[in-house]
Amino acid sequence: MKMRSFVVMFAVLVISGELAAVDVLHLRGGKTVQGQIEGITHRTVTFRVIVNLGGGNKGQVKRSYWLKNVEFIDFFRSENEIAVLAQGRRPLRAELQKLWGLKGVYLDQPRSNAGEIGLLYAEALLLEDSVYYWSQAMELYGLIEQKSWHEEDRRAARLGQIRGLVVQGKLDEAKKTAKEELVRTSNEEMIIEVWFLLGKIGFLQLKALQENHPRWQEDEEIRPQHEQLYHEILDCFLNTCLFHGTQEESAARGLMVAAEVYHFAGDFKSMQESLQDVVQIYPLTSMAVQAAEKLEKTAASKDN
Fold first, then answer.
1. Is 69 in the same domain as 82?
2. How many domains does the chain have?
3. Alpha-carbon dihedral sign for residues 295, 296, 300, 301
4. How far is the C-alpha of 99 from the C-alpha of 156, rounded, in Å?
5. Tell me, what DSSP letter sits at residue 165?
6. I want to staple 137 with a disulfide (CB 3.0 to 4.6 A). Which of 125, 143, 196, 287 is the partner?
């Protein structure tokens, strides 16, 4: 027996106002229902809708629909939510925590922006100087990776987990996780970001190595480790330029950070060449102006 569209109507509440928020349910077949989401389970969504009762009266009823009959939902976004997520400012952790509390339940629902909110919230948690908040961020990244409907959010959550390990100082684990991700993914943007993260992790390790071994050049055991790590870092930062050159912003970014690595190592000639590559090869990128300024400063310091 074919199961029909499941709709259950609950008690009617007589009211004179409108719903505080309007979500739009898009059913398979093209029908839409406007109302306010009351709750979602793995099988049904419950909607509160306005109905005419006659005599100028209106009422609210709750109706439930099978999720398998729902194409997608346009979720209501309040003015506060739009303001919090607006580009140009970094949302406060408390603001994002409140939004996540409201929207997190819709993480697996198509067209929901719960993943976006969760990722921003996790990022805000990582900025706190607290192991407690770092742990919350890692749990949140794990949840988004497992349950978000959006593949892009799931990829971003995996990158977030790597960054979270870096923030916690777990550099070896972060490097291992990043390398595993390179084997796992075929997405070009993901590959570029993972190589960049590997470079940043290696650079932190190189700085720590030199701090712990200030006379590393004279240490026969440490010197080979230093040289290997140094070249691995440069390979990571130059990877995009060499293999994904059409991704100009990312390629220029890698060259800029490679210039920092050269400067750290005292290889000023290679530093200048790297900055010149940014200006000459990627003149339309946001990094080109920064590279030109650094080249000017370098030339001015030589003149003095």
1. no
2. 3
3. negative
4. 19
5. H
6. 125
Domain range for 117: 77-168
Q: Could you tell me which residues come within 8 angstroms of residue 260 by beta carbon, excluding any fewer than 6 positions away?
A: 203
Answer for the pair 253, 239: CB distance below 8 angstroms, yes or no: no
The string over 19-37, giving b where at least 16 C-beta atoms fall within 10 Å of a residue's C-beta and e elsewhere, is eeeebebbeeeeeebebbb
What integer pLDDT is reported at residue 79 of this predicted model? 84
* DSSP character at residue 108: T
- Residue range 238-279, pLDDT digits in tens: 999 999 999 999 999 999 999 999 999 999 999 999 999 999
Alpha carbon distance 9, 16 (integer Å): 20
pLDDT at 18: 58
> How buried is 17 (Cβ within 10 angstroms: 0-12 exposed, 13-18 middle, 19+ buried)?
exposed
Beta strands in the chain (DSSP E): 8-9, 13-15, 23-27, 32-40, 44-54, 57-66, 70-74
- Residue that is last in its domain, among 119, 139, 168: 168
Instruction: Render pLDDT for 67-105 as a digit per residue (tens, 0 to 9).
Output: 899 999 999 888 888 888 876 567 789 999 999 999 999
193 — phi, psi (to 5°)?
Answer: -65, -35
Residue 251 lies in a domain: yes
The maximal CA–CA distance of the chain, rounded, in angstroms, is 94
**What tokens appear for 209 in the block?**
């190595």
